[in-house]
UniProtKB/TrEMBL annotation:
<dbReference type="InterPro" id="IPR003593">
    <property type="entry name" value="AAA+_ATPase"/>
</dbReference>
<dbReference type="Pfam" id="PF00005">
    <property type="entry name" value="ABC_tran"/>
</dbReference>
<dbReference type="Pfam" id="PF13732">
    <property type="entry name" value="DrrA1-3_C"/>
</dbReference>
<keyword id="KW-0813">Transport</keyword>
<feature type="domain" description="ABC transporter">
    <location>
        <begin position="3"/>
        <end position="230"/>
    </location>
</feature>
<comment type="similarity">
    <text>Belongs to the ABC transporter superfamily.</text>
</comment>
<dbReference type="InterPro" id="IPR017871">
    <property type="entry name" value="ABC_transporter-like_CS"/>
</dbReference>
<dbReference type="InterPro" id="IPR050763">
    <property type="entry name" value="ABC_transporter_ATP-binding"/>
</dbReference>
<dbReference type="InterPro" id="IPR025302">
    <property type="entry name" value="DrrA1/2-like_C"/>
</dbReference>
<dbReference type="InterPro" id="IPR003439">
    <property type="entry name" value="ABC_transporter-like_ATP-bd"/>
</dbReference>
<keyword id="KW-0547">Nucleotide-binding</keyword>
<dbReference type="InterPro" id="IPR027417">
    <property type="entry name" value="P-loop_NTPase"/>
</dbReference>
<keyword id="KW-0067">ATP-binding</keyword>
<dbReference type="GO" id="GO:0005524">
    <property type="term" value="F:ATP binding"/>
</dbReference>
<protein>
    <submittedName>
        <fullName>ABC-2 type transport system ATP-binding protein</fullName>
    </submittedName>
</protein>
Length: 299
């Protein structure tokens, strides 16, 4: 089971929201779909769901064209949450589950399982409007997964959740992946993507600017974060050529450097000045990569 997005373009009049995007997402994969505001993420999701026509290109699921008729295979947690406030959780989910071909008893069994898992079994008889925003989000998540979709699209799944609920939802998402669900997920919180995704794509103005495995992407960026802890003042390092950012910390400094060769020069400059307790080159974070690739041309 593979989702294939092939050379997909979407135009709204003179605006090109998605521009020649190609992605493949296999089974048991959690794929990170990143981009700044207006990059084209939601537009892509809506094309996958068949809610928007594709201007050019093709999206297929397991070799077959995808569209509205495949909606029972897909689960979607939209960024703008949309539950009926006056309905009880049970009735809401029965309604949504039936739309996806489930019987009432199947929905109730699944729903009870999920509510137990989220430690809120009593919510079954509550109206949505009686729940806090974060708890409404749990219900919306359940509504996206209750029919056991093969492909799950999560738009900013963790926004608005407290750290305990973030962990609970992460665990649920990882379990679904392990059971075989393909998951595409967008987030502005890079640490979540870094923790959960093996592959990712960063979109900028509709075009993919970084794409591939997280490990390879990091490797190709080189180690540009340097940590220096020393028993003597190290602020003279900030004046060296190739030092892009300098931050003083209690034990020394943290630097961003142009390339690994700059680190070699700094290492030599520290020689004989005193005791150096730490000199460590670190891989860039996903946030560093995002800022370098997208930030440079950000409006
Ligand atoms: N129905 C529409 N009509 C015209 N333009 C649209 C429409 N939907 C989206 N756009 C434009 O397409 C571009 C991509 O928007 P999209 O909502 O896909 O971005 P996004 O990456 O989801 O952003 P965000 O992170 O802010 O949710 C934007 O320039 C947006 O204004």
């Amino acid at each position: 089971m593979t989702l294939k997005i092939k050379e997909v373009t979407k135009r709204f009049g003179s605006t090109t929201a998605v521009d020649h995007l190609s992605i493949e997402i296999p089974e048991k994969e959690m794929f990170g779909f990143l981009g700044g505001n207006g990059a084209g993420k939601t537009t892509t999701f809506r094309m996958i769901l068949g809610l928007l026509d594709i201007t050019d290109g093709d999206i297929s699921w397991n070799g077959e064209s995808i569209g509205y008729d495949k909606s029972h295979l897909i689960g979607y947690l939209p960024e703008e949450r949309g539950l009926y406030p006056k309905l009880k959780v049970r009735d809401q989910l029965i309604y949504l589950g039936k739309l996806r071909g489930m019987s009432k008893s199947e929905v109730v069994t699944e729903l009870e399982g999920w509510l137990d898992r989220f430690k809120v079994p009593e919510y079954i008889d509550k109206k949505v409007e009686e729940l806090s925003k974060g708890n409404q989000q749990k219900i919306q998540f359940i509504s996206a997964v209750i029919h056991k979709p093969k492909l799950l699209i999560l738009d900013e799944p963790f926004s608005g959740l407290d750290p305990i609920n973030v962990e609970m939802l992460k665990e649920a998402v990882v379990n679904l992946k392990e059971q075989g669900t393909s998951i595409v997920f967008s987030s502005h919180q890079m640490d979540h993507v870094e923790e959960l995704c093996e592959h990712l794509c960063i979109l900028h103005k509709g075009k993919p600017v970084v794409q591939g495995s997280l490990r390879e992407i990091k490797k190709s960026f080189g180690k540009k974060n340097l940590i220096v802890h020393a028993d003597f003042p190290v602020d003279f390092l900030k004046d060296f050529a190739g030092v892009l950012h300098y931050k003083s910390v209690t034990e020394g400094c943290e630097l961003q450097i142009e390339s690994e060769t700059v680190a070699q020069r700094l290492f030599e400059a520290l020689h004989g000045k005193g005791f150096v307790r730490k000199f460590e080159l670190e891989e860039p974070t996903l946030s560093d990569i995002f800022i370098e690739k997208v930030g440079a041309s950000y409006e």
